[in-house]
Amino acid sequence: MAAILCEDASQSMYAQMLCGLCQRHDVLRVGAVFAAALVRAIRFLQLNWAQLAADIEAGELNPSVTDPSVREAVAVILRPDAELAEFIRTECSRGDWTGIVTRVWPKTKCLNVVVTGVMAQYNPTLQYYSGGLPIVSGMYASSECFFGLNLRPLCGPSEVSYTIMPNTAYFEFLPVGEAVDASNLVELARVEDGREYEVVVTTYAGLNRYRVGDILCVTGFHNAAPQFRFVRRQNVLLSIEADKTDEAELQRAVERASALLLRQHSRASVAEFTSRACTLHVPGHYVIYWELLTKSGDTVDGETLGRCCLEMEEALSAVYRQGRVTDGSIGPLEIRVVRPGTFEEVMDLAVSCGTSIGQYKLPRCVTLPCMVELLDSRVVSSHFSPALPHWTLAP
């Protein structure tokens, strides 16, 4: 509890990881609220395993952990263990992090983490780190209220639907595509199978008809309770002119480009991404920041990354492609590869500005000047789409 309440995110993570290593044979599941946080925790181990092993060998926390309550709580668990320290050094110094979760915590049965919506892009990374453990997305919740449960926790990540719990709040739904008006709101019992809605909540805490901003699709019913699949956030992310690219469309484009990257370079994958619309020059263009996960320090050639740019453009809307091909109002899409650890720095920046680390979600479009400046300062290579995407005028 002391580690959870610690205000310093780095000290909190260090203490939890250290205790998890000391009790590694007692761990049955590994998880976090969102997939991004779990990936961050594993990368934290990648960066700090040497110091963690040294502390375990000595049986004492290093001076960098200064919070008195954390030091006192960890002292109850931490004991000198040279054998465990050597095990950690052996496993983590190999450079191969495939299945690291089950290698370090051998009794782990599943990963307990939300992987729906934009978090779905972490599935390949989590599969890589866990060695193929089941990924359980057990619940759907937000800062506003608790929404529902996944009644089939062992289903595949792409099949996850949540059954709304009608006693946690008063739920209403605004059909996607209709005017934002109270008269268009649909009660929970009257939603239609297969239709998309924006969820609106009235909570016990005092929110009245609050638009959460989540778009859900009705996938069926459990008895009379509707079941929903999370589709996307409501807001448009990217726009240069008439084009409007939302979160789900950007996610699909990145997934398509990631598949191409995997085919061309089997030892590389997209670990994290975000975007922005760059209008410093005319015409403006989309900038996609990629942090790559490669094995054994491999690099990806510029030609392959250029093809990934074009693959993303092919996956974007007809309006975007028309702007690229016919109107010339949108410039070639650009992928900027940032150095490893950049998105951890982005998270640290967000937390320093007041964001809760437990609720943190990487913005899929960055607009804050300080975040843009940070990302641009970590760019190691830049690549543009080498050709125009396909577009024809519909007959």
From TrEMBL:
Record keywords: Ligase
Domain GH3 C-terminal: 249-367
Pfam families referenced in this protein's UniProt entry, alphabetically: GH3 (PF03321), GH3_C (PF23572), GH3_M (PF23571)
Parts of the chain that traverse the membrane: none
Highest rank taxon of the organism: Eukaryota
Family: Belongs to the IAA-amido conjugating enzyme family.
Protein name in the entry: Uncharacterized protein
Organism of derivation: Oryza meridionalis
